[in-house]
Design a protein that fits this description.
ADP-ribosylglycohydrolase fold
């Protein structure tokens, strides 16, 4: 598969990730007025600025663009360099500490393993940024798992933190495959596909609940069963986002509205759902005004016109 084509898919996923991230970010601290936005069918006015979710994904796609694979030392440096320039992008407390230490010259292997009382992070930070990896390596699941693990470990050493990154990369690979080889009822196949290729972990086990939850369920029920990212853990983020993406497989705006209505870590949940759906849907499937509201990505990481695989 042509590397430029792979990169194009990764950029599409990145663009969707940034859109979802910025969309979700606009709804923080607005619970009392969400019903107005939903009733009017209009999100918050521009500008929509993206957060650390997108900033860290930028580094991953840059690494793929320049080298075609993940080198952990280089990726750690990219993460730390971007953090140094824009530490205000919404990084969590653990990420602040890890990236600051790496920027000061500490070995990322030691720093990443030291958090959570030496367990390593089991947060959702690896999951929020990994979809472009699944798009890039979509036709080779071994590579999806390998590089998602590598990219996750730089900041998330706990098995669940790693599983979160792998799960979302697998979902993006599934969506990219569907783009070129449509399956019957993909919305029913997405979560079982991810679970089948995911390492043993609490995150993998909790996908059983997502598989069993009917798509007809209310979003409040989904939150009570699966979580909504409010604990900022892979276990309460990945099952919910996969369920939301599967439930609205062919309706990108509905998927984002549904996801943000679950509240919780809404920039991250919307980023993940949008990054997955961007792999098989088209930019035209979202209102053009939404794209215009989005803070632009760096020019060299903007998606390009669609091409066919070679």
């Amino acid at each position: 598969m042509d590397a430029l084509f792979r990169l194009q898919l990764a950029k599409r996923s990145l663009h969707g990730l940034a859109l979802g991230d910025a969309f979700g970010q606009t709804f923080f601290a607005k619970e009392e007025s969400l019903d107005v936005y939903f009733r009017e069918g209009q999100p918050a006015p521009a500008p929509w600025t993206y957060t650390d979710d997108s900033v860290m994904a930028l580094s991953i796609v840059e690494e793929l663009a320049e080298h075609g694979f993940i080198n952990q030392d280089r990726l750690a440096k990219r993460f730390a360099d971007r953090y140094r320039v824009e530490p205000h992008r919404g990084y969590g407390g653990g990420a602040h500490w890890i990236l600051r230490k790496i920027g000061e010259g500490a070995n990322w292997r030691i720093v990443a393993a030291d958090v959570f009382e030496g367990q390593g992070s089991l947060g959702n930070g690896a999951a929020m940024r990994s979809a472009p990896l699944g798009a890039y390596f979509f036709d080779n699941l071994d590579q999806v798992v390998k590089h998602a693990r590598l990219a996750s470990e730089v900041t998330h050493m706990h098995p669940d933190g790693i599983a979160g990154g792998i799960a979302i990369a697998l979902a993006a690979a599934f969506a990219s495959r569907h783009r070129f080889s449509p399956q019957d009822r993909p919305e029913e196949e997405l979560i079982p596909f991810v679970q089948a290729h995911l390492p043993e972990s609490d995150t993998r086990a909790k996908l059983n609940k997502a598989i069993a939850l009917p798509f007809s369920s209310r979003i409040e029920t989904a939150v009570s069963v699966l979580g909504n990212g409010s604990r900022v853990l892979a276990t309460d983020t990945v099952p919910f986002t996969l369920w939301c993406a599967a439930r609205h497989w062919n309706d990108w705006p509905a998927a984002l509205w549904e996801t943000v209505s679950g509240l919780g870590d809404r920039d991250t949940t919307c980023a993940i759902v949008s990054a997955i759906l961007a792999c098989h849907l088209n930019p035209e499937d979202l209102p053009s005004q939404w794209w215009q509201n989005l803070e632009p990505l760096p020019a060299h990481l903007q998606p390009e016109p669609e091409a066919k695989p070679s």
